[in-house]
Amino acid sequence: MLMSGEEYRESLRGYSPTVFLDGAQINSVADEPRLAPGVAAVGVTYDFAKLERHQPVMVAEEQSSSAKVNRFLHINRSSRDLLNKLEAVRLVCQRVGCAQRYLSQDALNAIHQATYRIEAEAGGDLHQRFGAYLHRVQAEDLTLGVAMTDAKGDRSKRPHEQTNTNAYVHIRERRADGFVISGTKAIVTGAPYMHELLVMPGRNMVEADSEFAVCCAVPIDAKGLTIITRPAGRPGDDAAVFSGRYGQSTGVCVFEDVFVPWQNVFMAGEWQHAQFLTRAYACHHRHSCIGARAGFGDLLIGASLMMAEANGLDAAGGTHLRERMVELIKIVEGFFACGVASSTYGVPDASGCAEPERIFANVGKLLLSTQIYDMQRIAHDLSGGLIVALPGPDEDHNPQTAARLEELWQGKDDIPPERRRAVARFLGDITASDTAGWFSLISLHGGGSPAATSLEIYRSYPLEDKVALVESLLDRGLLDSEQSETETGDQPGRCCADGCQAPEEDKATP
Length: 510
Ligand SMILES: Cc1cc2nc3c(=O)[nH]c(=O)nc-3n(C[C@H](O)[C@H](O)[C@H](O)COP(=O)(O)OP(=O)(O)OC[C@H]3O[C@@H](n4cnc5c(N)ncnc54)[C@H](O)[C@@H]3O)c2cc1C
Fold this sequence. Notes:
Blueprint: H1 5-11, E1 18-21, E2 24-25, H2 36-50, H3 55-58, E3 59-61, E4 68-70, H4 79-96, H5 102-122, H6 126-140, E5 144-147, E6 170-174, E7 178-189, E8 196-199, E9 214-219, E10 225-229, E11 250-261, E12 265-268, H7 274-310, H8 320-344, E13 347-348, E14 354-355, H9 358-383, H10 386-389, H11 402-409, H12 417-432, H13 434-445, H14 450-460, H15 463-475, H16 483-487
Parallel strand pairs: 1-10, 5-8
Antiparallel strand pairs: 1-2, 3-4, 6-7, 7-11, 8-9, 9-12, 10-11, 13-14
Helix pairs in contact: 1-2, 4-7, 4-8, 5-6, 5-7, 7-8, 7-9, 7-12, 8-9, 9-12, 9-13, 9-14, 11-12, 12-13
């Protein structure tokens, strides 16, 4: 059953998580104003799945059950699915800044792949067990948080070498009916308003780390789980025209002897597979990050153009404003194109899941990680300084100042002053507030640091093929003769005589 946003908010009342916010325990996540922008943002992922016009991207058919499920709980089976997911993420992020729920899908796909691999290599029923779990969360239309990033302690040490064992979540005890875990996960998007957490390993492991190779599902109100969180966005701040309504909270998740029944355990010590699971998740998630930041880019593009026009300038008029706009568009559509390519060249996995093509997914993520700062710089350049200097909303109706401020707000004659003021506040909110800093950090580090992304590109890229290419040219003396030009098609941009071929439709379909 697909829930609406309101039903999702109501469903949170069925849980009693232990949540601390700004130094005090909160009673009801569904009613907490400081978390409301986060609940509202996730709610849009539900509402959009109910709207007929969005259903082609927001709803999918689960192949293993034929059930109609929310896109953010779906196992991708084809390039088309990957493209739809990318577009679904962009669509929701245009509306709310960060959709958050796509993490659920990224983790479900990676666990689908990893449990299949473990079962194929070692036997057991992990993949079947995961299949039952998947069908339940799809049927209940849940939102799952991803608890992957451990506290990590001393980064130069492996999990088993840490002085404080709780720096990584680990198995404390194995029982006949399940296992018991402890440890701290450092950053979990939306933690307080998730239904369940997917606990996952966040790095490669060696045999001595086996008790840290843990993957399982934990209800948000499991006994022994404490969430220490922050407000989502900037609730209650009238100047926060966007992030007062939609935002994202993150939580530190402390597990203290949390019992997990075997039916919710998907990895319990299989250290050899920890890296596979981490890398698969990173690939799915970086692909999603591309869609997310493209949606944010759409907001910057629209607002920057509106601000320039409200200032009386015509961006199309051949001034530097047009160049800046094109630079912004180039950045956003440049990394989004990597997401499209990653979807188009998606790779079928043995489990039947389609994985985004890794190099394009990682290159796109690396581009947006660093270019987010350029995106904000360009928006600032186009907008002018007013977006950080403007008086607060309390002055809008102050009889002593409002009339004089009208003179400040008035730009181009035919654009109402309050329109220019609203765009300025919007840009200040998303590019120059703590929400703006948050967008930078989630772009830079969310889904793994730039160094981790670079490493993935380096180890996945077929460097040896490029060396072999040049070696073959040298060995055949082709570089010394004119023959080389004709043999490779004689056309700029062509890498072979045939030129690039459009991939077959749904290349990733197994
Ligand atoms: C807003 C936001 C939301 C997030 N949401 C989630 C979420 O929902 N779930 C989740 O699991 N995670 C989440 N993350 C965490 C994200 O994946 C991490 O921030 C990221 O992996 C980097 O880890 P870190 O923050 O611990 O930084 P660190 O690992 O401390 O990295 C800091 C720097 O040190 C370098 N470094 C780290 N270790 C080493 C080493 N051994 N050798 C050399 N250099 C090293 C890094 O490359 C980087 O340059 C989120 C992050 C943000 C900012």
